[in-house]
Each structure stands twice: as C-alpha cells, then as structure tokens.
Design a protein that fits this description.
heterodimer, A: mainly alpha, ABC transporter involved in vitamin B12 uptake, BtuC, two-stranded antiparallel ribbon, 16 helices, 70% helix, B: mainly alpha, 2 strands
C-alpha cells in the first residue's frame, strides 16, 4: 500500500511568527469546512447532529487510532474497537449505569480517567503481544485478541454482566448541560474529534512520529541507528489506545449502553473498513470514511427499498464498496481525490504535459 | 528424541510423568477419592473425546488455511465463509440426493471452484501485496456472509448423519464400575464423531504423504521455502497456486459438512471457525501442517475441558494458550522462525 510520509517542516524556529507559520498553510477550503462544522447546529436537525455527525466523529476517532498505527506505524491493528469497547465497559463499571449491582458509581472525574487508563493498558498489552510478530500476522493476532474480548464479555456475568451488558450509561451533567442533547453532544464529539485530529497531526511531525515512520519504512535501519524499534511500536499502540478509549467512552454515551456487541467482530471489521475506505495516508481519512459509512448505514435502507431491493442487503453494499475501494484505490477515497486533482492539474498545466510528464 | 532426553533430563522426566498420569487418567478405573475431587470419569472421558474430535474438525479447516498461507503468504480471512458455504452446499446436496456421503465431494468441488475463481480473478492481480490481499479477503467475507444470509436465512441447519452412523458405539475405554456386580462399564460414544475423526486423520496423513512423497508435494514445499527461486527454475507456479488454493478451499468446504453434521450451521459460524483457524495456526505455527494438527488438538481439547470444568472462562483458556505461545515462541510451536 502506497502510504505517503507526511513529514512537515517541524521545529523551524522559535519566533512567534514562525510558530504561527502553520496557520498560513491552512487552505481556504479547510477554513470553510471548519466554519461549517462550527455553525452546523444553526441549520441542521437533531437527527443529523446526533445520529449522523456525532456518530461519524466517534467512529472517526476510533478509526483515527487505527490510521495512526497503520499509516505511521505500518501496523494494521484490529484491536482498536476493542480498546474503545473496553473503555466503555470501564466507564459503565466504575461510573453509573442502570445495573446498580455491578456499577461502582464513582464520580465522573475518577471513573473516566480510570477507564481511559485501563483501556490504554489493555491496548498497550495487546500491542506488546502483537509487535512480537510482523506484517499480516499483526492482523491475525489482534483479531484473535478482539474476539477473545468479545466472547469473554459475553460469558462473564460477574464483571461484564454477560450478554445484556450495561444500559443507562449517561454522560455527567457537567456545567449543568445535558450532554446527550443533540447540540451539546455534537459539540462534545466535535471537540474531542478535533483534538484527537490535531494531536495526531502534531505527533506525526514530532521526533517520535518521525521515528515511528522510519520504523515503518525500514525497521532494520532504524535499529541500526540506535532506535528501539519495539519500544516505538508499543508506544504507538499506547498513544493510539488513548484516542480509541476516548472515542469508546463517547460511543457508550451516545448509545447509553454497552454490550458485547459494541466491540463484536462486526464493529471491529467496520472500523477497518472505515479507515481503509477513508484512506490510511492522512489523519482526515478515517473521518471521511466514517461519514461515508454512517451515511450509508443510515440511508442505504431507504435507497435500497426505493430501488426495489430488500433493505437488509445493506451489509452487501458495504462489502462491495469496500472491495471496490481496495481494488481500485488502495489509499482510499483520499487517494482517489488526490489522483483526480493531479489529473486536473496536469490537464490545466499545458507546459508540463508538453515537457513529457503527462501520461 | 534421545538427544532431547540427554540434554534436558529433568524436563524429560516431567514430560514422561505427565504422559503416564494422562494415560492413567484415561485407562484406569478412578478411585473414589479422585471421583470426589474431579467428578465422574464419564464426564472427563466425554470432554476428552469431544475435544479430540473437535480438534479433528479444526484441523480440517485450519490445514487449508495454513497451506494457503504457507505458499502464497495470503491470510485468507474469507476462510470461515468458505467453511460455512461448504456446510450449506453439503446440506442442500444431502437433502436433495439423500446420500450423506455425497455431500462431501459436492461441497469440496463447489467450494474449490470458488477458490479457483478467487485466486484467478482476485489474488493473482495483487500478488506480493500481502496487506491488500488480506483486506480484499475481509471484503469478500463480508459479501459472502451477506449473500449466504440472503439465500439460507438466519435459521440453524443440521446435516443428518446416515442411519449406519447414528447412535452410540461402545468403546474400549472404562468409564466406571457397576456397584452391584463390579463389572466394568465401557464408555458409549456417538459413532459419527469417531468416524469423522478417523476421516480427518486419513486426510491429514494423505496430505502429509502428498506433500512429502510426490512431485507436486515437492513443488509445493519448494514454493513455501522460496517461491521466486522455484518460478525461476521454470515451474509454472501460478498453476500450483491455483491448485493449492482450490485444495485449501475445498478442505474448508469438507470441514463445513463435518461441522454441519456434528454441530450446526448458522450465520456467525463462519467467524467462529475463522477465529478457531487463526488461533490454531498461531499456536501451531504458520504454514506448517503438523503444526496445524498439534494446534488443532490442543485448542480442541482445551476448549472442551474449559467448557466442562470452568464454563465461564472457556474462552480464556484458549486465549491463554495463544498468549503463552506468542510470549515464548512467537513463530508457533512447530513453526520455523
């Protein structure tokens, strides 16, 4: 898979002007998207805010954690959804839920950090196991871990409450706001998604991120240069787990429940589909993939019925779409977009074509 | 073996004692104190035999998976879907003709044909791109799962075993003693499971013979070691790829018929067997047929004992085995590093 190294010009200087230089690189299109996202509640309905965008941001965050591992670390981990599910379970167990016999009812400022820490530990340990092997083995091992978690939560009634899981898991009413109100939830998820996006972008240009990309491209050379390859990979898992854990907590709040199915095999594969369809090359990819997935998931039924097909064939549509993307554009929708733009530029720039660079 | 004994005398002693103890557990009449601690011997023997026969089924499914992986470096995550498809095809065929035995060749041929199509139309186009191939197999498994759900619905299907195999047979294993007369009671066990286990052993031995004693097996082994060099010697490696893929897929199809006979088929079984194959080949060693046999036996027995003696943590036992193997021998028990 052709993954582009997203190496920016970090650490140019310390002057304020130069520190803000990145602002100049932001294109007008990006500003427009940011503006639209910020004023979205003014013209979008509750359903769009909560079901479409809220859900997209959450899935996008979990996909982002996979993108970080796969795009910058070269490790396709299927355990990210499980880390998210684990965080969701921990919030339900340590915080409040309708299952009062198990939930400990700790205040949110204790329950949430503990949940994130435990999920991160889980993700890091899974990563430590997975990095013992390379390449496609990682997929197999993380898939096995994910399914073990699924079957374990389904069988265990003492801690995980078995098949039914926990319901009534609600966000705390911080600042007197009901965070499950569509507008409030929209801004909540937007905030965390934007933060996750910014941090991933920042880390990818930090020394750690650059070293990780070096490890992805040539682990032996990096080891020869004195970098601890295994430690970098495990650290990448730890970092990605934090993002996935936050996404998982938001996911549980949006559904108000968590059950084994939350992190079942289906959702685990869905996250991979989202990240791959969006594009593993850049952090924005998973969010685009998540939006496409959620739109399909929400409206495919109506479209299929309108076309005279059975509505349940939605999964078929997802699978075929995924196949098409993997077949013709391994770097996802983003890759398609890049290629279209390159082609448009080539046809506009006559001189370059004449210079023999066109095909 | 002699070298091993000379090098590790203590380990050999421990392993020997464990083997003797296991044999005693299986063949002896348990004393009353032992019965109190462990429960009835019949339960133990049933769990053991269930585990071994389940291991046979796992071997059928996982050996195709590991063969395909070993030669083509293709992690075929659609393998579980091939298993389930084989089960459904076998069911339809057995239902149509009334002959249970006919279900096996039918499932083998249909699923192997699908394997040929997949290899020619899909995987051949992205040779050498491991990750992309794996992603494509995920897409295929999603599509196949939904197509099968479309055709066969969400119901449970079970293939009926023929009359000459139904019912239990008496085995030579003592399960207990009659209180009144002191006569030994012999364990009764379903004949069909024993037959299927014997069949999977035959398949395993046949595979070993083909791989080690024939020309085509020699080519396959050479391809596993170095496929570039093999194709450089003028062997038409694409033919071998197609052949191996068809055979591996066909084995999964046969596994489906077997699984459909002594368990049942429903949506979701594909994922279960995919995961079982994954764990089996991770434990046994990727690309190794003896490894798949050992892994399948270990996982099958562990799963059954787990579900009998600690029902809520059965999955954890399987998983622990995998974690231990990964921690101490990442290439798998019989895998080559």
């Amino acid at each position: 898979m052709a993954l582009q190294a997203n190496i920016g010009t970090a650490g140019l200087g310390t002057g304020v002007v130069e520190r803000l230089a990145w602002l100049r690189r932001v294109t007008p299109g990006t500003w427009l998207v940011v503006l639209i996202l910020l004023i979205m509640p003014a013209f979008a309905g509750d359903f769009v805010l909560f079901q479409v965008f809220g859900w997209s941001f959450i899935l996008g965050m979990i996909g982002l954690s996979l993108m970080f591992l796969a795009g910058y670390g070269g490790m396709v981990s299927l355990v990210q959804m499980t880390v998210a599910g684990c965080a969701g379970y921990m919030v339900a167990i340590f915080g409040d839920s309708a299952i009062t016999t198990i939930s400990l009812g700790w205040p949110w400022y204790l329950a949430i950090p503990v949940a994130v820490v435990i999920a991160t530990l889980f993700g890091t340990l899974s990563g430590a196991l997975a990095v013992r092997t390379e390449g496609i083995y990682t997929i197999m091992i993380t898939l096995a871990i994910a399914s073990a978690f699924f079957y374990f939560t389904r069988q265990n009634y003492v801690i995980f409450n078995g098949f039914s899981g926990f319901n009534g898991v609600l966000p705390p009413a911080l600042f007197g706001v009901d965070w499950r109100q569509p507008t409030a939830f929209y801004y909540l998820t937007l905030f965390w998604a934007a933060l996750g996006y910014a941090i991933v972008l920042y880390v990818s240009r930090s020394p750690f991120g650059l070293a990780l990309q070096g490890v992805r491209d040539n682990p032996r050379r990096m080891a020869a240069l004195g970098f601890n390859v295994t430690a970098h990979r495990i650290a990448a898992y730890a970092f990605a787990s934090v993002i996935a854990a936050v996404g998982g907590i938001l996911l549980v709040w949006s559904n108000a429940q968590v059950s084994p199915g939350t992190a079942g095999i289906g959702p685990v594969i869905d996250i991979l589909v989202i990240a791959v369809v969006g594009g593993l090359g850049r952090p924005i990819g998973p969010f685009i993939g998540a939006l496409i997935y959620v739109l399909l998931r929400t409206f495919a039924l109506d479209v299929l019925v309108a076309l005279g097909l059975a509505g349940e064939r939605f999964q078929l549509l997802i699978g075929l779409g995924f196949l098409v993307i993997v077949f013709w554009s391994p770097d996802g929708v983003l890759g398609l977009w890049d290629r279209l733009r390159a082609r448009a530029e080539r046809s506009r720039d006559v001189f370059r074509v004449n210079a023999g660079r066109g095909r | 073996m002699r070298v091993f004994v000379e090098r590790h005398p203590i380990w050999s002693l421990l392993i020997g004692l464990a083997v003797v103890f296991a044999l005693w557990l299986i063949f002896a009449v348990w004393p009353p104190a032992f019965l109190d601690a462990f429960g009835r011997k019949k339960i133990f023997l049933n769990a053991l035999l269930n585990g071994i026969t389940l291991g046979g089924l796992y071997f059928l499914v996982a050996s195709g998976f590991t063969l395909i992986f070993g030669l083509m470096r293709n992690v075929n995550l659609a393998h579980g879907s091939l298993y389930l498809l084989g089960g459904y095809v076998g069911y339809e065929f057995a239902d149509l003709t009334g002959y249970w035995l006919l279900a096996f060749p039918a499932a083998f041929v249909v699923v192997a044909a699908l394997g040929v199509v997949l290899q020619l139309a899909v995987f051949r186009r992205m040779e050498g791109q491991d990750l992309r191939q794996t992603l494509v197999t995920i897409g295929i498994s999603i599509v196949l799962a939904d197509l099968m759900l479309w055709i066969w619905g969400g119901d449970f299907y079970q293939i009926e075993a023929p009359s000459w195999l139904s019912g239990p047979v008496e085995t030579f294993l003592v399960s207990g003693v009659k209180r009144s007369s002191g006569e030994a009671i012999f364990l009764k066990y379903p004949a069909v499971r024993l037959a299927i286990f014997a069949a999977s052993m035959v398949v395993g031995i046949a595979m070993w013979l083909v791989l080690n004693r024939t020309r085509i097996g020699m080519l396959i082994r050479a391809g596993v070691d170095d496929r570039d060099m093999l194709s450089a010697t003028g062997v038409r490696i694409q033919m071998i790829f197609v052949l191996v893929f068809a055979f591996g897929a066909g084995l999964a199809g046969i596994g489906g018929v077997v699984g459909g006979t002594f368990q049942s088929m429903a949506p979701g079984e594909d994922v279960r067997f995919l995961l079982a194959s994954l764990v089996v080949v991770i434990v046994g060693g990727m690309g190794s047929i003896p490894g798949a046999a050992l892994g399948a036996l270990l996982i099958g027995v562990a799963e059954q004992f787990g579900s009998v003696y600690m029902p809520t943590y059965a999955v954890v036992v399987t998983f622990l085995i995998m974690v231990l193997v990964l921690a101490f021998r990442p290439q798998g028990l019989l895998g080559r590093s």
